[in-house]
Amino acid sequence: MQAVSVQLLYLLGAFRFRPPPTKALDRFRTPRLTFISLKWFCPVLHGNRPRTSPKGPAEFMFEFNDDEIFHVDLDAKETIWRLPDFKEFTSFQAEGAQGNIAVLRSNLDILMRRSNNTPAESVPPKVTVYPEKPAEVGEPNILICLVSGFSPPEVGVTWLRNGQVVTDRVEETDFYPNKDNSFRMFSYMTFIPGRGDVYVCRVAHSGLEQPLDREWNPNMPEPLPETTENVVCGLGLAVGIVGIIAGTVLLVKSRQLNGNRFRQGPL
């Protein structure tokens, strides 16, 4: 199964603007003309006539400067805002997404019938696991699994703790498009680090021969805190200054000795 994507461009000016309620949003009073991309993805079954399904997977999302503004939960027919500030001065009716997707499905079906149906290449994902903040044993934290650079946008993420599948306190984002036409998504797991615990983010994708595991444990080295980095930089700077002073003193003394020998002349 492969995925075909259709992209439309909308203008931010198409939103219905209303005056923001607070001065905190003054910078948004003047609408700026910008493009918002909408992408919809459709599965293609090889060996059969390309076809779409009214119940097929779809995603309706608006972005601004590569950040999601909102997406539409197509099952609940609800607009989910990722940037709350935008909700204060604009609105979007979730029902409108269904109409747009219906048009896209019709256009996509025509494109698929007229194309040569060349299979798209499956690009495997890259996986990175890291905590939201420096991990401390016994302190609540959030473990983040970044899955990026993959195509088509079909991926399965499973969390494991000490070899056991974790199903609660787990959340996932939608698929975010990258500029190179690949995709990225995040999976979050709320947890309390314990000594000896081992966490794994397991990712399955059509571009992988087998699921890809990325391991993390509380004992893995973390980036140096800013205070530690400042101390290290300060010590390095101090050592460097001492070295410069010592070198200057030795150079001056060497020149003085050479000058005395020149004035005394040969014995």
Automatic annotation (TrEMBL):
Domain of life: Eukaryota
Principal location listed in the UniProt entry: membrane
Membrane topology, as annotated: Single-pass type I membrane protein
Membrane-crossing residue ranges in chain numbering: 234-252
Localization (cell): Membrane
GO BP annotations listed: adaptive immune response; antigen processing and presentation of peptide or polysaccharide antigen via MHC class II
SUPFAM superfamilies the record matches: Immunoglobulin (SSF48726), MHC antigen-recognition domain (SSF54452)
Keyword field: Adaptive immunity, Disulfide bond, Glycoprotein, Immunity, Membrane, MHC II, Signal, Transmembrane, Transmembrane helix
Domain Ig-like as annotated: residue spans: 125-213
GO annotation, cellular component aspect: MHC class II protein complex
InterPro entries noted in UniProt: Ig-like_dom (IPR007110), Ig-like_dom_sf (IPR036179), Ig-like_fold (IPR013783), Ig/MHC_CS (IPR003006), Ig_C1-set (IPR003597), MHC/Immunoglobulin (IPR050160), MHC_I/II-like_Ag-recog (IPR011162), MHC_II_a/b_N (IPR014745)
Statement: the UniProt record of this protein carries the keyword Transmembrane helix: yes
Any Pfam family: MHC_II_alpha
Family (UniProt): Belongs to the MHC class II family.
Designated name of the protein: Ig-like domain-containing protein
